[in-house]
Amino acid sequence: MATGKLVVIKDFDLSNNCPECFNQDLKLTFYQKHVYGKLFHRTTNQVTNQIICNKCGSDIYPAKWTDDIERIFNYYQKMAVPEKSSLKFTTLFYVLILVIIALAGAASYLFYEGILTI
Q1: Which 8-state DSSP code applies to residue 59?
Q2: Residue 20 half-sphere exposure toward CB, CA atoms < 13 A
Q3: What is the tens place of the pLDDT at every residue in 90-112?
Q4: What is the CB-side half-sphere exposure of residue 34 using CA atoms within 13 A?
């Protein structure tokens, strides 16, 4: 079963006021989703973000953003460039492919030699 993991693309420290506690210590983080399986590693193009106040620890959701936070977010969003969407196979995948090819070759050899019949 494949498991998903959010990998940090970039962190930014913001000097905007927190809408909850009015402290000037916010952190903006951009994440990209990676999916790990036994046979593959997939990098998706799904990018998420999160703004957290370092003082009160609350998440700042887009409904509570001020105009300043929105402007800064749009600026930093352009700077956070995600990895390209890709699919990489693991060593186990290649080993299984080689074993299947070897078994198919052995079965066809035994069939043509008359040792194996259907």
Answers
A1: B
A2: 14
A3: 999 999 999 999 999 999 998 88
A4: 13
Span 67-92, average pLDDT:
92
Residues shown for the chain: 118
Mean pLDDT within 86-92: 94
Q: Rounded CA gap, 39 and 25, in Å?
A: 42
Q: Are 19 and 6 in contact (CB under 8 A)?
A: no
Examine residue 108 and state whether it is found in any structural domain, yes or no. Answer: no
**Containing structural domain, residue 34:** 3-90
Residue 22 lies in a domain: yes
Cα(65)–Cα(49) distance, integer angstroms = 13
* Alpha-carbon gap, residue 118 to 9, rounded angstroms: 56
